[in-house]
Amino acid sequence: MKPIAFGKSDVGRKREHNEDSFCLDADLGLYIVADGMGGHAAGEVASAKAVEIIGGHLRENSGRWSQYQTQPTVELRDQILSLVEEAVQKACGEIYRMAQEDKQRHGMGTTLSLMLLIGNEAFIGHVGDSRIYLLREGLVHQLTVDHTLINEQLKRGVISKEEAATARYKNVITRAVGIQERVRVDTLHLDVLPADRFVLCSDGLHGYLKAGELEKITADCEAAQVPDRLIQLANQRGGKDNISVVFLEMPPGDEESSREARQRLDTMRNAPLFKYLSYRELVTLVNLAYIRSARAGERIIEEGVVGDELFLIVTGSARVLKGDQTIARLGQGSHFGEMALIDNAPRSASVEAGEATRLLVIGRKPFYDYIRKDTTAGLKLLWSFLQILTLRLRTADERLREAQEELAVQQVQPDWILPDD
C-alpha cells in the first residue's frame, strides 16, 4: 500500500534563511522533516546532512525488511525499529563531528521526525519538536512527543496548560540531533489503515494550528494542495519560523484486510484499564501484545496456577469459574488476569472460553519494560490499577456486608416462639 505524498518548505516571513529540510522517497518509503538550528547557515547544513545520512543508511540496509515482509515476526519488527534508531544515531554522530571541526558550526543540530513505510506498517523515529500527526476516521492524533522544556514542565506539573501557552521559553528543546555525540531517539511502530493520512511538520506550522483545523484543511482540498494551504496559514498568522510540511494519504482499501488491526486497537482503547492512555501510548502498548485463539470450553487461565499475562477479549466470550461454579461472564472488550502483571500470586479463579474466542495478550516483562521507558504512561496505568482495585474492594465489602446482614436476619429468633420450660 503506497501513499500519494507531497511536501514543501518555506522560509516564512521573519527569517532570512531556510534551515529546514525534508525528504519524500517513495521508492524507499521514507518521509522526513528536519528543522535545523545553529546560525551562520549551520542549521541548514545539519538538517540536510541528517536527511542525507539517514536516507543513505536505510537504503543500504533495505534488504533487512524484505525478510520482515515475508515473515513479520516481533523480533524482525524490533530490528527495523533499531535500524531506524541506528540511522538517526549515525546522523547525530556525524553532525556532532562536523561541528567540532568547524568553530562556526559549534552547537549546530536539528530536530527530526521520520516515517518509514513498509507494506501496511509505519516505523517512526523522532527527536525534538517537529511532529507527526495521524488523521484517522475524523480524528487527529499526535504520534510524537515534543522534546521541549515546556512539555517537560507540563508533565511534571510545574506549569499549567494556560501558563504554557504564554511561557517565555516555548521554543527551548531538550533533545536534538548533533548537539551531542548521541541522542535519545523515540521510536514507534504503527499499523497503517486504508485512507489514513499523515502530516509531518516543523514547529513553524504546528505552533499556529488551532483545534480542528488540521482535519478540516486536509479534508477540504486535494492532497497536492495541502502543504501550500498549511504554509499559507502559518504565514498569515505570523510566519516567525521556517515552515515545512510533508503530507501523505493512503489509498482506500479492503476493510476486511484492516479489520484485525482495528479490532486490536479498539479493544484496548475501550478497556477501563487503558482509558487514560493517549492514542500514541495505546499504539505502543498494542505492539507489546500478541493474539491468542481459544476454542469453546478451553481453559485460558487456571485457578491456583501462577501466571504473568493480561488478557483482553477481542471477539467471543468467556466465563469465570471458582471451582466448578460460574461466578461471572465476560464479553467482547472485557479484560482479566491483570493482577498477574503486578504480583506473582496464583490465579484466584479459572477462566474458560464460552465460544470460539480471540484474545489480546500482554506479558509482564514487556509491560514492565514499557512503563520503565514511558513513565508518564506508567503513572496512568498505575492509577487505573488503583481504581480497579478500589472498586473491587468496595464491591467485596458490599457483598460481605450484605452476607452479614442476611446472616443476622436468619439468626433472629421470632418473639412469638415461646421458650421451652
- Say what the CATH topology of the largest domain is: Phosphatase 2c, domain 1
Principal-axis shape equals: elongated
CATH architecture term of the largest domain: 4-Layer Sandwich
CATH class of the largest domain: Alpha Beta
Low-pLDDT runs of 5+ residues are none
Average per-residue pLDDT, rounded, comes to 89
Give the SSE string. EEEHHHEEEEHHEEHHHEHHEEEEEEEEHH
Structural class: alpha+beta
Strand content: 15-25%
Helix content: 25-40%
Alpha-carbon distance between the termini?
93 Å
* Helix run count: 12
The strand order across the widest sheet is: 1-10-9-6-7
- Tell me the major beta sheet: 5 strands, antiparallel
Number-wise, the strands total 18
- The CATH H-level superfamily of the largest domain is PPM-type phosphatase domain
State Rg: 27 Å
- How many discrete domains? 2
Keywords:
421 residues; Phosphatase 2c, domain 1; Jelly Rolls; 2 domains; 5-stranded antiparallel beta sheet; 38% helix; elongated
Question: Strands, helices and their partners?
Answer:
Elements lengths: L3 E7 L9 E6 L4 E8 L4 H19 L3 H7 L3 H28 L7 E10 L2 E7 L3 E6 L2 E4 L6 H7 L5 H5 L20 E6 L5 E5 L1 H4 L6 H8 L5 H11 L6 E7 L5 H16 L8 H8 L3 E5 L4 E3 L7 E7 L2 E5 L2 E6 L4 E2 L13 E4 L3 E7 H10 L1 H37 L10
Antiparallel strand pairs: 1-10, 2-3, 3-4, 4-5, 5-8, 6-7, 6-9, 9-10, 11-18, 12-17, 13-16, 13-18, 14-15, 14-17
Helix pairs in contact: 1-3, 2-3, 9-10, 11-12
